[in-house]
Design goal:
alpha/beta, 246 residues, Carbamate kinase, 19% strand, single chain, nine-stranded mixed sheet, 11 strands, 7 helices, 35% helix
Length: 246
């Protein structure tokens, strides 16, 4: 079917990078907003119902960021702070998992930080098998290592799981040449190459994550998840956000 058909599936398997803020209250308030979590889960449920294999890397910024301790006197060391952030992603993963399963969607939560009482350990072959059975796989715990962002975890898991695209869900509807919140004249890019992102020093993802996607030839789609049906439009290949390819 042509890409212009809104029901067409452009991708078979996708890796969605979802920030912790997507489940939060916003405005600097910490916590898990159950209403926001339900809205996100409903979109994911509709995507999975269409037969798309969906893996989700979840952040933890709505609960805790390791970087918030970096300006202190190292009472809490940076590595410890990062591990605390990884635990926050597991908490978000649990909330998203239960919300999805309350909607009748089969899921599996896997963590790069081992905690078998609440989540499976991340095992690539097991994750692939879950995807093949059309289970939504929620990937928490980052990479399991400090000093690595969840963007890098998304690039790593997207490459490992042979995703067709990495969907980076943000609060902005694509990549701009300046911050559109601060600059009303900022221009949006519809398409970019990896080289253009480097040359223009655009903050698509952190450099480690971006380089991994470039080497793996894994395209990135940056879009605003708050727009109505945005995730569904993204997997259908409808014009949305900014596409970064080789």
């Amino acid at each position: 079917m042509p890409d212009s058909d809104p029901t067409a599936l452009k991708y078979k398997r996708v890796l969605l990078k979802l920030s912790g803020e997507a489940l939060g209250f916003g405005g600097g308030k910490l916590g898990i907003n159950l209403d926001e979590t339900k809205l996100i889960a409903a979109q994911l449920a509709r995507v999975a119902a269409r037969g798309i294999q969906l893996a989700v890397v979840i952040g933890g910024g709505n609960l805790l960021r390791g970087a918030q301790f970096s300006a202190g006197d190292e009472q809490i060391r940076p590595a410890t702070a990062d591990y605390m952030g990884m635990l926050a992603t597991v908490m978000n993963g649990l909330a998203l998992q239960d919300t999805l399963e309350a909607m009748g969607v089969e899921t599996r939560l896997q963590s790069a930080v081992r905690m078998e009482t609440v989540a499976e350990p991340y095992i690539r072959r097991r994750a692939l098998r879950h995807l093949e059975k059309n289970r939504i796989v929620i990937l928490a715990g980052g990479t399991g290592n400090p000093f690595v962002t969840t963007d890098t975890a998304a690039a790593l898991r997207g490459t490992e799981l042979q995703a067709d695209v990495l969907l980076k869900a943000t609060k902005v509807d694509g990549v701009y040449n300046a911050d559109p919140v601060k600059n009303q004249y900022a221009e949006k890019f519809e398409r970019l190459t990896f080289d253009q992102v480097i040359q223009k020093q655009l903050g698509v993802m952190d450099i480690g994550a971006f380089e991994m996607c470039r080497l793996a030839k894994l395209p990135i789609l940056v879009f605003n998840y708050r727009q109505d049906g945005a995730i569904e439009k993204a997997v259908s290949g409808q014009p949305i956000g900014t596409v970064v390819t080789g």
